[in-house]
Amino acid sequence: MSRGHVSGNLQAGVQPLQAFPSGQSLTGYAEHVYEQPEGEPPVETNSIRYWRDWAGLRNGQLELRLNNQRAPRVHGLGWGLDPDAGVWRPLRVDATGALVVAGSGPTPEPGPPTSQLGGWWRADDILQAGGSTVFTWSDRSGNGVDLVPVPAVAQPTLSTNNPQFNNRKAVDFTGTQQLYRLNPPHWPTGAHAFTIYIVNDPTLSGTLHGMFGWGVDLVTNARACFCYYGPAPHVLGVDGYGNATRKYFASAAAQISSASSANNANMGAATILVDGAVGTLAAAGDAVQWAIPNPCPEVRLAGFAGAPYGFFVGKIAEILVYHKNHNASERSQTLAYLSARYGIPVV
Question: What pLDDT digit, counting tens, does each position of 96-152 carry?
Fold first, then answer.
């Protein structure tokens, strides 16, 4: 008997996966294993360890028996969304080798609300080696707000198997890295409402950690910011650049930080939550009216322009930004999704 094992990447159009929707692709990490007993046809298995690009597929493992007609056609795990019935079903391979969705399945995994979703970044979507530089963090909201390198500023790295995030991936900012997007479409500006959720594990040091912001850098009252401030005791605050209006004593633990306001032009009205709970108020400033331009000039992750100050230090696993002030039901749904995914308890 001979055995072999080959690893590589599945690309669009790989057979026998012709049952995928037209124009879609299957990319990810794959393994090809074959066995050939003496005097018999070889047994070949393609094991898909990770897939993406088709929103109807969950991450998982699926094994396809290709050319041994006596072997079972499917071995392993795999689920797909049946768009006609709107339910999750097991994946199988039919007699022609096509990957199809059939049978009955469980209740879909929880997901966040999608109404007025402006940007959504999840580190698990970044398909590259751990420790490598992140040059693009793709937006999964459908709005095309991909985060890319800031000129003349270092890029963060991808961190894998993070125990504080349920062993999932995170983007690691060690002190002088940023990502941004110029002219983001569908973005809350002016007096628009907003809601932000950031799954993060901060390293609190220094005086200012700009975690996420949008508007015009270095222009007073023309930028919304979600920041950590120091030195100790550190606080978590939401404000307009240069004018802190609401600060809560910060925690250094991995957390789901969120900020929500009915009026983007008045950060003094913002609600800040950590793991679903309002913290202890450390300071409250004036309710300054911000003048964020419309359209928004940029969004920036992990800092401000004008280095060397203002960088966020720590890891970020997921970010969601909405063009609305979440009500209790929407907030509960989003927190439940993030809590289940990252193993962070919420109240």
Answer: 444 554 444 444 567 899 999 999 999 999 999 999 999 999 999 999 999 999 998
Tell me what the pLDDT averaged over the chain comes to: 74
Q: How far apart are CA 199 and CA 112, in angstroms?
A: 13
Q: What's the token pair of residue 238? A: 């939401």
Cβ within 8 Å of residue 22, ≥6 positions away: none
Report which secondary-structure segment, H or E, holds 339.
Answer: helix 328-342
pTM of the model: 0.70
- Please count the CA atoms within 13 angstroms of the CA of 110 that sit on its side-chain side: 13
The answer to whether the CB of 320 falls within 8 A of the CB of 120 is yes
Q: How far is CA 318 from the centre of its chain?
A: 4
Q: For the chain, what are the domain ranges?
A: 2-101, 117-342
* Cis amide bond preceding 41, omega within 30: no
CATH code for residues 117-342: 2.60.120.200
